[in-house]
Recover the amino acids of this structure.
């Protein structure tokens, strides 16, 4: 696949300029669910908040984390698990749906009545498996990070604020790089509409082929989300102890909005990139 | 079938949300913690803005803590709860925490009556939680003491010692606060000048510790109680009994390496016993100096050095005593227990050695360096008394005027200090020789409000009655004596005071 930097830039620009609400709506559904989760998390003082998110938190972290303000120290982790669940499970249907809507104007086969839904249904399994593989790889990285590379970079930086920042940056950048390796699985699954193995393996192969460009897209579109994440994860304890603990939830609101829009742009740009690649090949 | 499954899901969700399970009480606990967090924040901010918030501010801050109980009223436990169930217990403890903050602020605001009411409420609503009830009872005790209801406070302490079992500490761990209660009872009596009462409390304390030692205890608790018992025997001057207990403690410490932290206390107590038993102080001084040298970081190191200095002074070895007082001040300037006393004694020894200017400087520095100490209360008036004993009347009067100002500063610096009664009493003692009898009566009026029930106030009332009468105001004098009879009805002087009052009214 021959893709140039200028093609990638055009794809990114086009993705932003051609924003269409109905293409974004599947991501909007995930965002709405995350909003609901955060609203419930902000209301643990009410039985309906404690009976839902509080119940979930107590079952994951025990009674100690369902106290105020300790709960807000745990909230970013809980929100991360919810995010992983939503983007993996609900996303196995919603992400292909959004991609099919992005592809629809350029793919005549998708314009037939019921074709979008049929293609999306066929994509669910490979996308779900791709998502689970991503989550598994990310969990592996999260396990490895504090064992060796994290402390190493922290000590090389001389500890302190710089050490913490570099530790966090290493964790996030590698995590994004891992996600990028599976980024094209839903696009290939929807675009080609072929079997499970083709979608999964072909998706990984194409992801690796466009890896440098997708990484650029990730950095570009996730930058606002990365900043919000940096504040919550690096300054979490200070925010909770020295400011209002609820600030943590406000930052997470900002993060989920940025990540939702960023993910849509990421898929929109990468889909356009793969279409351009194919056209170039043809 | 499908509809049935949905109904089941919704019923489950509704039950969880509406309070089946513990969601309602967990939510209430969370709300309580949220309110406490906000109240603590408000207090922190108020204290940042004002180094010493006034009583109105403190009572306003207290309202934030009171709101917790109003928002989450009892009962916290349900009949269906298993004994020791976590959720009702932690909910009660959260509300209890807010109440205890309220008690603390009421005490700081000089409103022990409010503190008492709140602490009694918590004690009555502890719902079987011993920890909460213990804390509430400690707060009741503090409030009663601040109200000047010393007999009631001591009765409360007795009740607590009889009701609560001691917590087992970890090896070398902190003492259970309950173990400090007997010493507090003795000190309360001593503060009142009630030597006989203090001796009675010492007897009670010994009986309490002995009873505790007869019960099966962990070695750590046994070591703590035994060391306290030794301290009490030493306080009593009962060297033989102290020595017997010391042997037991020694054995315990030797057989448990984890009690190594008790070694300084064992050696210090042994030296104290020697000081009581031996005819010459040499061995005791040697042992005390050894403790100070071997355990310089232990509080017993500081105490040993001071004790050694006092022993030297008592046996007229002034040079050696002065050296040790110097050492205490230089090595332990932050130890509020030993440093002020060492500085005061140093001043007195300097005066005896004829270095009056140096002695005066030393005494004058005490209220500045250690404002919350008995030495700070004694130093200003001591300077005046020393001038008087040298027949330097103008200098004595000037020193008295300076002392009044110093006492005013000490009182305004910390109006809730345990020494304020003594500051006011000494202020009165300075005002009278200065001829400021009207200011003196004002001080007595202040003591009537702020130090009600204190033995110094009793003395001040008799003094005030005498002054009022000598300045042609017998009616005012009779009022002071009437107050004496109302506030101290059990006083042995009551009959004499009654007669004097009647004479004034005639």
């Amino acid at each position: 696949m021959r893709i140039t930097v200028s093609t990638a830039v055009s794809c990114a620009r086009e993705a932003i300029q051609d924003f269409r609400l109905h293409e974004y709506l599947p991501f909007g559904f995930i965002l709405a669910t995350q909003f609901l989760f955060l609203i419930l998390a902000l209301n643990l003082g009410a039985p309906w908040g404690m009976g839902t998110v509080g119940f979930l938190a107590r079952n994951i972290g025990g009674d100690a984390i369902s106290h105020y303000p300790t709960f807000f120290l745990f909230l970013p982790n809980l929100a991360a698990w919810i995010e992983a669940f939503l983007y993996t499970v609900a996303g196995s249907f919603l992400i292909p749906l959004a991609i099919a809507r992005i592809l629809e104007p350029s793919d005549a086969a998708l314009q037939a009545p019921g074709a979008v839904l049929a293609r999306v249904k066929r994509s669910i399994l490979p996308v779900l498996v791709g998502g689970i593989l991503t989550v598994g790889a990310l969990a592996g990285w999260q396990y490895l990070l504090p064992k060796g590379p994290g402390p190493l970079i922290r000590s090389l930086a001389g500890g302190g604020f710089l050490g913490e920042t570099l530790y966090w940056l290493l964790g996030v950048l590698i995590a994004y790089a891992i996600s990028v390796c599976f980024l094209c699985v839903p696009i290939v699954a929807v675009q080609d509409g072929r079997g499970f193995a083709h979608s999964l393996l072909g998706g990984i192969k194409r992801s690796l082929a466009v890896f440098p460009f997708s990484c650029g897209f990730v950095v570009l579109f996730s930058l606002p989300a990365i900043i919000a994440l940096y504040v919550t994860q690096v300054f979490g304890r200070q925010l909770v102890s020295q400011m209002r603990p609820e600030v943590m939830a406000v930052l997470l609101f900002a993060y989920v909005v940025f990540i939702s829009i960023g993910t849509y742009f990421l898929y929109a740009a990468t889909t356009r990139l793969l279409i351009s690649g194919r056209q170039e090949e043809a | 079938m499908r509809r049935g499954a949905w109904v089941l899901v919704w019923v489950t969700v509704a039950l969880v949300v509406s309070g089946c399970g513990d969601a309602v009480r967990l939510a209430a606990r969370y709300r309580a913690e949220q309110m406490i967090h906000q109240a603590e924040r408000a207090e922190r901010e108020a204290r940042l803005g004002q180094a010493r918030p006034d009583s109105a501010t403190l009572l306003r801050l207290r309202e934030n803590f009171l709101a917790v109980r109003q928002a989450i009223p009892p009962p916290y436990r349900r009949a269906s709860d298993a004994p020791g169930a976590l959720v009702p217990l932690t909910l009660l403890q959260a509300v209890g925490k807010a109440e205890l903050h309220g008690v603390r602020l009421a005490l700081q605001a000089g409103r022990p009556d409010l503190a008492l009411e709140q602490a009694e409420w918590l004690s009555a609503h502890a719902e079987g939680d011993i920890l909460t009830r213990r804390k509430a009872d400690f707060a009741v005790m503090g409030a009663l003491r601040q109200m000047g209801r010393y007999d009631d406070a001591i009765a409360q302490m007795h009740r607590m010692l009889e009701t609560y079992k001691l917590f087992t500490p970890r090896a070398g761990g902190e003492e259970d606060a309950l173990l400090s209660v007997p010493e507090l009872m003795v000190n309360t009596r001593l503060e009142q000048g009630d030597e006989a009462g203090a001796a009675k409390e010492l007897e009670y304390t010994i009986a309490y510790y002995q009873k505790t030692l007869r019960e099966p205890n962990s070695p750590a608790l046994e070591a703590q109680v035994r060391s306290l018992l030794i301290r009490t025997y030493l306080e009593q001057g009962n060297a033989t009994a102290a020595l017997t207990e010391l042997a037991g403690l020694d054995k315990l410490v030797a057989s448990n390496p984890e009690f190594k932290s008790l070694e300084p206390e064992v050696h210090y107590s042994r030296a104290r016993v020697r000081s009581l038993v031996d005819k010459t102080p040499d061995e005791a001084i040697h042992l005390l100096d050894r403790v100070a040298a071997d355990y310089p970081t232990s509080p017993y190191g500081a105490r040993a050095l001071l004790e050694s200095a006092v022993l030297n002074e008592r046996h007229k070895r002034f040079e050696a005593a002065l050296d040790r007082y110097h050492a205490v001040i230089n090595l332990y300037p932050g130890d509020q227990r030993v440093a002020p006393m060492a500085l005061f004694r140093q001043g007195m020894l300097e005066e005896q050695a004829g270095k009056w200017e140096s002695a005066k400087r030393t005494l004058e520095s005490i209220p500045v360096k250690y404002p919350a100490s008995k030495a700070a209360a004694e130093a200003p008036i001591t300077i005046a008394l020393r001038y008087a004993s040298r027949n330097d009347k103008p200098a004595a009067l000037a020193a008295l005027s300076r002392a009044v100002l110093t006492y005013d500063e000490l009182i305004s610096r910390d109006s809730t200090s345990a020494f304020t009664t003594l500051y006011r009493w000494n202020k009165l003692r300075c005002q009278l020789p200065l001829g400021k009898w009207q200011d003196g009566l004002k001080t007595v009026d202040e003591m009537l409000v702020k130090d009600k029930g204190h033995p110094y106030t009793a003395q001040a009332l008799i003094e005030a009655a005498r002054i009022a009468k000598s300045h042609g105001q017998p009616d005012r004098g009779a009022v002071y004596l009437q107050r004496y009879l109302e506030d101290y009805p059990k006083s042995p002087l009551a009959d004499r005071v009654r007669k004097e009052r009647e004479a004034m009214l005639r």
About this structure: The radius of gyration of chain A is 20 Å. The mean pLDDT of chain A is 91.
